[in-house]
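Hey, resending since the last one bounced:
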Amino acid sequence: MEFGSSWTVDLLLAQGYNGIMAKHTIRISEAEAASDFAGLMARVRAGAEIVIENGERPVAVLHAAEPVRRTISECIALAGAHEEETGKAPVLNSDFAKDVEEILSHRKPWNPPAWE
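The structure tokens again:
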């Protein structure tokens, strides 16, 4: 996907957790959106939000249907990869580590009730 002068990328900071994680917002004209919709969808899958505009007026917003979530095993794998790449191990907050250990040690299998 080529990015011409009409593409602008703004870094928006939200509150709380989202304030730490920068969110890319791409503003694009209707004509540009129509010319490479597959490329726009790839950007959305990568976490961008696309604002489609008519002139300067926003007419549509494309964003992921739900936030990307990682399993604990994926987080551990990412932490390991980070350590291999940088030589620095992620530091886990000791209170958080104790809380996770407590939760896991008392975890029981989930047996949902059967529907009638």
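Residues 42 and 55 are 24 Å apart (CA to CA).

Sorry for the duplicate.
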